[in-house]
Amino acid sequence: MDARNRMRAGDAGKVCCLIGAGLFGEEYIPPGEGGLVIACDGGIRSCKEKGIIPDLIIGDFDSLGFVPDGGEVITLPVRKDVTDLWAAYEEGERRGYRNFRIFGAAGGARPSHTIANIQMLAHMAENGCRGVLYGPGAEYRVIRNDLLKLDRSETGRMKHISVLSLSDRAEGVTIKGLSYELDDAVLTNDFPLGVGNLPDGRDAVISVRNGTLLVITERT
Predict the structure, then answer these.
(1) Of 146, 153, 159, 203, which residue is least crowded by CB atoms under 10 Å?
(2) Residue 131 forms beta bridges with which residues?
(3) How far, in Å, CA of 188 to CA of 212, rounded?
């Protein structure tokens, strides 16, 4: 079963929001009915600042400095193979969520964590989930053997849209509705052909037949 079919097999309607301890983007989009909000370690501070009430708090709490009380809390060991945010994603997936919005997890003083979170998006795409990583001035998405539609209301908020290959080769790449279009092209992960494309007021569609693409929409 490919990623698109696995996505259809899950519950695409419910959204899980993951709140990290990093820089928050310009906006917070709540998950809506049936959704789940997970604060990851120091992300509980961002929740308090934004008036967000998490359903679950998870982490080793080395960033927070103490184990919070009240509500549902999962305490993780400090020595482990995954980040707190990854553990939160796994917990959300275990509870049946396939759509993820990730906040407070891009930019800031730990670029390694931003890259790790982009890798998490790739894992989501490989396993039939969808994720959007919201950072200051930018949003990150990953698709694998799939397509992404961005309507004009969304592209109209963006100044640049970049499409980059995360796999060695991404075959059958098609980009429609942006200033520079592609049709059944090949992108590789050692040449950034798709960087800095421009929206031009149309709905945009980005697709790849075989491979994994990172799509970055930037407001600057």
Answers:
(1) 153
(2) 100
(3) 10
The structure's pTM equals 0.90
Angle between helix axes 111-126 and 84-94 (nearest 10 degrees) is 20
Question: What's the rounded Cα separation, in Å, for the pair 44 and 18?
Answer: 11
Mind listing the pLDDT tens digit for each residue in 2-52?
443 333 334 557 999 999 988 887 789 999 999 999 999 999 999 999 999
Instruction: Give one DSSP letter per residue of 93-122, joined into a string.
Output: HHTTEEEEEEES-SSSS-HHHHHHHHHHHH
Q: Show the tokens assigned to 136.
A: 């200051």
Rg (CA), the chain: 17
Determine contact, residues 17/70, Cβ cutoff 8 Å.
Answer: no
Q: Is the Cα torsion angle 189, 211, 132, 139 positive or negative in sign?
A: positive
Domains and CATH numbers, the chain: 1-136 (3.40.50.10240), 138-220 (2.60.120.320)
> How would you list the strands of the sheet with 11-19, edge to edge?
72-75, 56-59, 36-40, 11-19, 97-103, 130-135, 138-144, 212-218, 160-165
Query: For residue 201, what are the CA distances in angstroms to 152, 157, 195?
Result: 6, 10, 18
